[in-house]
Design a protein that fits this description.
The protein is elongated and about 90 Å long. The chain has helices at 2-18, 20-40, 59-69, 86-91, 105-110, 126-151, 172-194, 196-203, 206-210, 216-244, 254-278, 282-298, 311-316, 321-335, 343-368; strands spanning 48-54, 74-79, 97-101, 115-122, 158-165. It has a 5-stranded mixed sheet. By secondary structure, it is of the alpha/beta class. It comes from Thiomonas bhubaneswarensis.
């Protein structure tokens, strides 16, 4: 018995190694995913952009700022001179946090009174905000230890006063759940459309479709619309559950989310049809879907910030439709974005959708000839 099993195993291995498509599936996707995970999936923060609002002219504030500028973890990107500049620097994502030193910082420390340093942090990505606050705490601890040793303090001279914008309690659920709207919508739409044409080929009914009065464009639309409708219903259901069940605030425009969802479904449907047009069997279609899905999630900013990725990898994210829809969903839920605020996300998403549908139509016609 074991001899027959061994012979069957050898036969299957030989078939896999001799088939070009099988070799590509075995070698290509693991290497691609290894590179994507290795370079893009990082929770380490480097060169955290911060702005300085220093109202104190004493040497204690200069010493504290020297501790921040002396570490490679932080990178100062702006100097704020009045209160009105704080909000734009965080809202426009120019700075992840603002370091605000009050006008009596040095005076209070010289009087042996605890002085407060205010940290205003962008809380839209709760995980990144928590890591940045931990690093800022570490720098403040170094300053406290040095000042206490030089001036004979027993307790901590400076203490941190933290304010998180958009997510006051830094709840990870507020960051993750809006992203799940994009993630599950992409998964469902790709699975429905990515297997549609391949299923017809595998069942032997694809040729029957071609001899019907339906034109190729009508067949393509018939394959695209189910995925479009199912993906839209799935997204609407998850969006409602996020608010009612998970208590994620929805402070933006429903219309803005609907327009983004329309363009995102167009892009996901086009990509799914491209995969399905190339695949011969459902298994190949399924492998193609997951080969696209995993890098798409990693390169979208769903779990790890895009800013932490190498510049070459960041360029790849611009052709990823999930990148733009994540910004749309999180912006609508947490930041109160309207249609006009999201135009920079709409047009690249629409461009990807039109290009993917056009390429899917060309592949479909090419494979039917």
């Amino acid at each position: 018995m074991w001899a027959r099993v061994f012979a069957l195993v050898i036969k299957e291995l030989l078939m896999l190694l001799r088939d070009t498509a099988s070799r590509t599936v075995l070698i290509g996707p693991p290497l691609i995913q290894l590179l994507v995970f290795g370079y893009a999936a990082s929770f380490d923060l480097n060169h955290i952009p911060y702005a300085v609002y220093n109202e104190d002219s004493g040497y204690a504030s200069r010493e504290l700022l020297a501790h921040f500028s002396g570490t490679t973890t932080f990178a100062q990107v702006a100097t704020i001179t009045h209160d009105a500049q704080i909000a734009p620097s965080i809202n426009d994502k120019d700075a992840l946090l603002v370091l605000h030193i009050g006008p009596h910082f040095t005076r209070d420390l010289l009087r042996h009174q605890p002085a407060t340093v205010q940290i205003l942090v962008d809380g839209r990505d709760s995980n990144t905000a928590s890591l940045a606050l931990n690093d800022a705490n570490g720098v403040l601890l170094q300053f406290n230890q040095q000042w206490a040793a030089q001036h004979g303090w027993q307790g901590p001279p400076a203490r941190m006063d933290v304010r998180s914008w958009f997510n006051p309690n830094l709840l990870s659920r507020w960051f993750i759940v809006p992203g799940i709207v994009a993630l599950l919508t992409l998964v469902v739409t790709l699975l429905v459309t990515g297997l549609s044409v391949a299923r017809e080929r595998e069942m032997g009914t694809f040729d029957q479709l071609l001899v019907t009065p339906l034109r190729p464009v009508e067949i393509l639309l018939g394959k695209a619309l189910p995925g479009f409708l199912i993906g839209g219903l799935e997204a609407a259901f998850i969006a409602v559950v996020a608010v009612i069940w998970f208590k994620v605030p929805f402070v933006g425009s429903v219309l803005a989310l609907a327009i983004g969802l329309l363009f995102f479904l167009l892009a996901a449907t086009g990509i799914g049809l491209m995969i399905s047009s190339i695949a011969v069997t459902q298994q190949q279609g399924l492998l193609g879907v997951f080969m696209f899905l995993v890098p798409s999630i990693i390169l979208s900013g769903f779990a790890t910030p895009i800013a932490n990725m190498p510049e070459a990898v960041q360029l790849l994210t611009y052709i990823n439709p999930m990148r733009y829809f994540l910004i749309i969903t999180r912006g609508v839920y947490l930041e109160g974005y309207g249609v006009s605020d999201l135009i920079p996300q709409y047009w690249p998403l629409a461009l990807i959708g039109v290009a993917s549908m056009a390429l899917a139509a060309w592949l479909f016609r090419h494979r039917t000839q």
